[in-house]
């Protein structure tokens, strides 16, 4: 059905202006004033911002990890995402050494196909580089439309790849047109420190943080960046948690290397002291890399403001406190890593970032949507509001006040990482390709309506195409 959004303030990564939007057949047909279409539903956005739907470039839905599986799958996870204003997620497809890549990709399609309520894509984990893997990569990119690879420098004996694998992945990505993503922590040093901590009888959640100090993240971030420079390739560092790693990215960019960095809401508002909560509650806050000393938060906000970090991912990877996190009751290394962030990703950035004057409104859109669309081959179909783009749109009340809680979130997991936090701003309605997923704060979407997105190769969107899209917008 046609829709006209009236009375709102459109915000993109570059512009803020009042105009109406005509939506037809799932795309934006016109942007202007006094738009007419007889049979269109009028959507009143009075008092609201009209944002492009958020893009979360870092999720783990229905993922096996640490002897269990994430609580939120592609249905509950994408419903939560939509309530928070996200209309696209890119999830990590895990692979195993010696197993055809197609098996992993098919497994991820099976997990998502009938469940996702918003559009989605996949990144592909690279566990090893062999001649066989190299022969499979062109079809991953050209036929499957999976144009980003993920290499883990940590999780020894589980996901960790060696430096030669990272370097060869960077070379292959350069040749084929993919972006390499990296979990940057020095897994060998962490393995040594965790073994030593357990030998000394230190088993509680805080030791998760103490055995993964900022230096091991900074060192791995610097190493991956240097290898990227050497390969003349492109790198995206996921979940940057601390000043040490953010500084390494800023240095790499100054040298002219193609390195980008993502941070996550948890690192911007939570800190290492949360791991010391009594009654094992600290386990709720176990992420890798870990939460850091509080002073790192302002450094990360400054890096976002200055453009030294470019995106916000959720790293959504939820495990129930009861029955999953407690696998590590007597041994912090057995606590499944990760937390529920997908629903609150944009909320935290708006409330703590825009409302507190740390970033601008246009930066908010760039950090939560546009930049990810550009880096991951979705722009301009996704990530902006312009004629011809998908009508993925969030109507956002900037003054709504609420308290975040597991009582009111829409995920399946049994706790909220931000329990009791007071925030300002909330999506009122969310459209995916012109159809309501959230209408007046109620879920009205359908599991299975989300489409798999075959993405363009790295850097393929043309400057001319972008220019045309922006000049036709008002
Ligand atoms: N980050 C985390 O603790 N869990 C999810 C897996 C990963 O991204 O490393
Ligand atoms: Zn990671
Ligand atoms: Zn992750």
From TrEMBL:
Any Pfam family the entry gives: Amidohydro_1
Domain Amidohydrolase-related: where? 49-436
UniProt region (Disordered), positions on chain: 454-474
Keywords recorded for this protein, A-Z: Hydrolase, Metal-binding
Cofactor(s) needed for function: Zn(2+)
| Gene Ontology terms: cellular component | cytosol
Give the coiled coil ranges: none
Residues modified as N6-carboxylysine:
150
Alphabetical list of InterPro entries matching this protein: Amidohydro-rel (IPR006680), Hydantoinase/dihydroPyrase (IPR011778), Metal-dep_hydrolase_composite (IPR011059), Metal_Hydrolase (IPR032466), Metallo-dep_Hydrolases_sf (IPR050378)
Query: What is a GO molecular function of this protein?
Result: dihydropyrimidinase activity
Question: What residue stretch is flagged as signal peptide?
Answer: none
Under Enzyme Commission nomenclature, its number is 3.5.2.2
Q: Which family does it belong to?
A: Belongs to the metallo-dependent hydrolases superfamily. Hydantoinase/dihydropyrimidinase family.
- Name this polypeptide is given: Dihydropyrimidinase
Q: What is the species of this protein?
A: Falsibacillus albus
């Amino acid at each position: 059905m046609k829709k006209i959004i009236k009375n709102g303030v459109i915000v993109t990564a570059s512009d803020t202006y009042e105009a109406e939007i005509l939506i037809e057949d799932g795309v934006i047909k016109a942007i202007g004033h006094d738009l007419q279409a007889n049979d269109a539903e009028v959507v009143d956005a009075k008092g609201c911002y009209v944002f492009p739907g958020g893009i979360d470039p870092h999720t783990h839905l229905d993922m096996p990890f640490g002897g269990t599986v994430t609580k939120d799958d592609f249905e509950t996870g994408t419903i939560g995402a939509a309530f928070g204003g996200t209309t696209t997620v890119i999830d990590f497809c895990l692979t195993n050494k010696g197993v055809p890549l197609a098996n992993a990709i098919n497994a991820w399609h099976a997990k998502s196909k009938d469940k996702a309520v918003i559009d989605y894509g996949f990144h592909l984990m690279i566990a090893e580089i062999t001649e066989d893997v190299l022969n499979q990569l062109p079809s991953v990119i050209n036929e499957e439309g999976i144009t980003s690879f993920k290499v883990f420098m940590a999780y020894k004996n589980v996901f960790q790849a060696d430096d030669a694998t990272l370097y060869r992945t960077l070379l292959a990505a350069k040749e084929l047109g993919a972006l390499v993503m990296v979990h940057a922590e020095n897994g060998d040093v962490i393995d040594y420190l965790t073994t030593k901590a357990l030998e000394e009888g230190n088993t509680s959640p805080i030791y998760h943080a103490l055995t993964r100090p900022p230096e091991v993240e900074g060192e791995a971030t610097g190493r991956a960046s240097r290898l990227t420079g050497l390969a003349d390739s492109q790198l995206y560092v996921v979940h940057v948690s601390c000043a040490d790693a953010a500084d390494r990215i800023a240095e790499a960019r100054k040298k002219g290397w193609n390195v980008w960095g993502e941070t996550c809401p948890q690192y911007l508002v939570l800190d290492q002291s949360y791991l010391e909560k009594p009654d094992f509650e600290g386990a709720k806050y176990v992420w890798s890399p870990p939460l850091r000393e509080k002073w790192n938060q302002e450094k990360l906000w400054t890096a976002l403001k200055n453009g030294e970090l470019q995106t916000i991912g959720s790293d959504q990877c939820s495990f129930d406190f009861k029955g999953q996190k407690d696998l590590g009751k007597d041994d912090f290394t057995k606590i499944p890593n990760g937390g529920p962030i997908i629903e609150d990703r944009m909320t935290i950035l708006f409330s703590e970032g825009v409302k507190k004057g740390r970033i601008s409104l246009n930066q908010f859109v760039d950090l939560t949507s546009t930049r990810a669309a550009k880096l991951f081959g979705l722009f301009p179909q996704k990530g902006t509001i312009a004629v011809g783009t998908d009508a993925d749109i969030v109507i956002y009340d900037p003054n709504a006040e609420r308290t975040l809680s597991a009582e009111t979130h829409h995920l399946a997991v049994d706790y909220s990482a931000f329990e009791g936090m007071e925030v300002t701003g909330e999506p009122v309605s969310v459209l995916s390709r012109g159809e309501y997923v959230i209408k007046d704060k109620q879920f009205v979407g359908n599991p299975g309506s989300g489409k798999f997105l075959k993405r363009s190769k790295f850097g393929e969107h043309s400057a001319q195409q972008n220019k045309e899209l922006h000049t036709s917008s008002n």
